[in-house]
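can u do me a favor
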């Protein structure tokens, strides 16, 4: 159409230039932070994937897809090893998703109970060692909690 072949103009009727290729924009453009791109020029600086239909980050003057940004600059959860977006919990120099941290604290409680039962059973305190079934229940709970912390968030 005649409209798509006409150069687009910005303020002062100056032609709009593509930030990536520095050529005059015609037809559809992408506008990000007062800069313009041809649709086909708005790509990831790292992998060249299309950014028009996906999320992206702006880092050091470059536009980067979410996957590359996380791989290069993101923070991984020390429990599930997935990248963290949103809220984080930091403890003892480690970083977690809030729900992964909750699983770890539950695991620590099970471990403490397991140790307590172990110590008490060695001292032959009858109240703590009512049956082997109780012992097995605590052990299986600890194993289950540990396996949950290793699953992906």
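np, heres the sequence
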């Amino acid at each position: 159409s005649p409209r798509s072949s006409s150069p687009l103009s910005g303020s002062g009727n100056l032609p709009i230039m593509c930030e990536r290729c520095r050529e005059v924009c015609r037809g559809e453009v992408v506008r990000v932070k007062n800069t313009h791109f041809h649709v086909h020029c708005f790509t990831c600086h790292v992998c060249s994937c299309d950014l028009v239909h996906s999320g992206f980050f702006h880092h050091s003057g470059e536009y980067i897809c979410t996957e590359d940004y996380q791989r290069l600059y993101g923070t991984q959860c020390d429990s599930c090893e997935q990248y963290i977006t949103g809220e984080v919990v930091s403890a003892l120099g480690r970083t977690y998703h809030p729900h992964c941290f909750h699983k770890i604290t539950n695991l620590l409680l099970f471990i403490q109970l397991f140790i307590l039962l172990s110590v008490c059973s060695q001292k032959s305190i009858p109240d703590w060692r009512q049956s082997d079934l109780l012992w097995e229940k605590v052990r299986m709970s600890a194993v289950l909690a540990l396996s949950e912390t290793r699953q992906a968030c």
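Helices lie at 2-5, 66-73, 98-122, 132-150. hope that helps!!
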